[in-house]
Amino acid sequence: MSILAIIAQICNGIGTLINAIGISVKDKQKLLLIFIIGNIFCALAVGLLGAVSGTLVLIIFVIETIINYFWEKKHDKYPIWMIALYIIIPCAVLIATATTPWDILPIAAGVLFPLAMVSKGFVLRLLNMLSVVVWVPYNFVFGQYVGAISCAIFTIVNLVAIIRFDLLKQKEK
Predict the structure, then answer these.
(1) pTM for the predicted model, two decimal places
(2) Phi, psi of 120, rounded to the nearest 5 degrees
(3) Considering its fold, how many domains does the chain have in total?
(4) Those residues with Cβ within 8 angstroms of residue 170's Cβ, 6 or more apart along the chain or in another chain
(5) Which domain holds residue 150?
(6) Cβ pair 46, 144 in contact under 8 A
(7) What does the DSSP 8-state code read for residue 102?
């Protein structure tokens, strides 16, 4: 494994760990800030390995999360046009940059992640978890083994958060 590949593995591990910590944060503003940092690391990691579509989608996620951070400070709801743009733009980028059938996988994340960011509570955690699941095979194919393992771990952490914050609280009521 080259030094570049090792650096990419480390970057993805750090990014996914940051995102995993973030999913347990109840405050939405803090959650968004944590996702910005985590996704920057993940974008760098897949970019170092030449996964262009995945890198671009993760950069789009960072931009969307930054927009959401500032939007939520002034507004309670997201307009439908904004949600539509959040879905259309990653799809257009993927269509323009896809070179292998594997490059299609980030399109699912490109749809699920923005829907998660405009959601709350259980729906946010569920959609975010589903958007991570599609990265497992993508990361594996592009040699981002730590990313694939990290995404699997992140899925487990997210399930714990769903159980802790959503299912157990439902039982208490």
Answers:
(1) 0.79
(2) -135, 155
(3) 1
(4) none
(5) 3-172
(6) yes
(7) G
